[in-house]
Amino acid sequence: MSFHTPESLQEAARAEWARIQALPQPLKPRERLAIPMQEMPTQDPLARARNMQEVATGYFEEQARVEAARCLQCKNAPCVQGCPVRIQIPRFIAAIAEGDMAKAIAVIKETSLLPAVCGRVCPQETQCQEPCTVGKSLKSVEKAVSIGRLERYVADWERAKGAAAAPVVAPATGKKVAVVGSGPAGITVAADVRRAGHDVVLFEAFHKAGGVLVYGIPEFRLPKAIVRAELDTLKRMGVEIRTNFVVGRTRKISGLIEKDGFDAVFVGSGAGLPKFMNIEGENLVGVYSANEYLTRSNLMKAYDTAHAVTPIHAAQRVAVLGGGNVAMDAARTALRLGAQEVHLIYRRTEVEMPARVEEVAHAKEEGVQFHMLQNAKRILGENGKVTGIECLRYELGEPDASGRRRPVEVKGSEFTLPMDAVIVAIGNESNPLIEQTTPGLAVDKYGHIVTDENGRTSLPKVFAGGDIVLGAATVILAMGEGRKAAAAINEMLKG
Fold first, then answer.
1. Which of 7, 75, 101, 199 has the fewest beta carbons under 10 Å from its own?
2. Other C-beta atoms lying within 10 Å of the C-beta of residue 22
3. Contacts 24+ apart (CB under 8 A), 69-78
């Protein structure tokens, strides 16, 4: 991907918008398909690899309106069916094309409270943009209408104008709902239940609210000021947020209902228990789970070396094991924390890599070195500290249960790489605390809470959603689960 300066992108968009306006209106479908897709302006790769400022700087207005003009306004709106929270996408995009940003954000907020977040971190290419007719006509999902970038644009427009209004809250019902976890699912439930007039208390185990949005996603992808703004909206709605409150320890689920008098409880505690490879050397100093590494950097601000109270070992050569978005976040964070070399090691090829294409491209631009068809066999050390890794080469065999081709070890292919830190980013499991302290709560073999299609668990008055149900998923999927659970809670409390 070649780098184009924000200024050059704005100039090109101005020229294109002038050309579009000169055409007879309304535009014909073939004319819309001929409009070039608008590239997202970003910081220069060499500069951004050493700072924590947001990589993508956002569309200019001219870009947003040009991109919006690409939308065919399909009557069957396949994009809406691809959105877990069913945002009326053609309507908000039409408003952008007309220059009515206030209308556009109002349409989005009919069903989503977190447009600035979702516009930044959701994998639109596998959700709303995947069925886009423009992308299908041009035979590439990468050429679909950039729905996520447009969503981000209007959310940022609203924040810049200081125009964000809290959703209207219905008259008080006298009912109380506890929401466990302040990530995307919890925020969504809290908002939807509060809109219905119920009192809501949001419980968070950490000292800051926001869940994975705060501890998991780096500042350069999701500025924490945006998350704070969304949480402030909840507070303005009347939602109480209690931090340093570990449900299962501070208070059990049964206690919230029987002692504190909550009429319903929603569990959105996420999937924050890291997986390890169970190989030799994982107990050495310099080995991190991606969860710990990112939490230290994001939540504890370890990158601010002058003020951080929980610093990270200053590694010069860092290996990241894994190929998902979390692995990309960890690798790119390591660069920003001062590593001279960052090596991402993945046992399949880039085609099978689950990370977003955009995140992979950004990592490469910033200097992360990719090692495909390789994996760690053991971690090497001296005096209790990491000194390197021993790797094996792999080749791809037949597809496994995930549908991806299974990596097969190449016998006798061992080789070593010198390293002084290793970050394990191979996925997460469910924290068992709530399961262990809540008798009768049904979970599956992975520890995920079992629910029906509306988020009801095996216990009366207890609902669940997000990663604690789905396993590690996306922000928007967690929000979709939250919306269904909130609707079920509101329906139950009517009676």
1. 75
2. 8
3. 69/20, 69/27, 69/32, 69/35, 69/97, 70/32, 70/33, 70/35, 70/37, 70/134, 70/145, 71/32, 71/97, 71/134, 71/145, 72/29, 72/32, 72/33, 72/133, 72/134, 74/133, 78/131, 78/132, 78/133
pLDDT at 392: 97
Q: Are 6-161 and 176-271+430-494 the same fold in CATH?
A: no
Which superfamily does CATH assign the domain made up of 274-428 to?
FAD/NAD(P)-binding domain (3.50.50.60)
Q: What ranges do the domains of the chain cover?
A: 6-161, 176-271+430-494, 274-428
- Count of C-beta atoms within a 10 Å radius of residue 225: 11
pLDDT tens-place string over residues 272-297: 889 999 999 999 999 999 999 999 99
Assigned CATH class of 6-161: mainly alpha
Q: What's residue 67's pLDDT?
A: 98
Q: Which residues pair with 456 in a beta bridge?
A: 463
The Cα–Cα gap between 47 and 3 comes to 12
On the CB side of 473, CA atoms within 13 Å amount to 24
Predicted pLDDT at 431: 84
C-alpha to C-alpha distance for 405 and 141, rounded to whole angstroms: 22
Identify the CA nearest to 78 among candidates 12, 128, 30, 139: 128
Q: In this structure, which topology does domain 176-271+430-494 adopt according to CATH?
A: FAD/NAD(P)-binding domain (3.50.50)
Could you identify the residue written with the tokens 């994996």? 375
pLDDT tens readout for residues 359-375? 999 999 999 999 999 99
Residue matched to tokens 């999701």: 222
The distance of Cα 103 from the centroid of its chain, to the nearest Å, equals 26
pLDDT exceeds cutoff 80 at 438? yes
Token pair, residue 353, equals: 């890599």
pLDDT for 128-138, tens place per residue? 999 999 999 99
pLDDT at 393 over 80: yes
Gap between the Cα atoms of 371 and 345, Å rounded? 5
CB 469 within 8 A of CB 76: no
- Provide the percentage of residues in the chain whose pLDDT is more than 70: 100
User: How far is the C-alpha of 468 from the C-alpha of 23, rounded, in Å?
Assistant: 51
Mean pLDDT of 404-410: 92
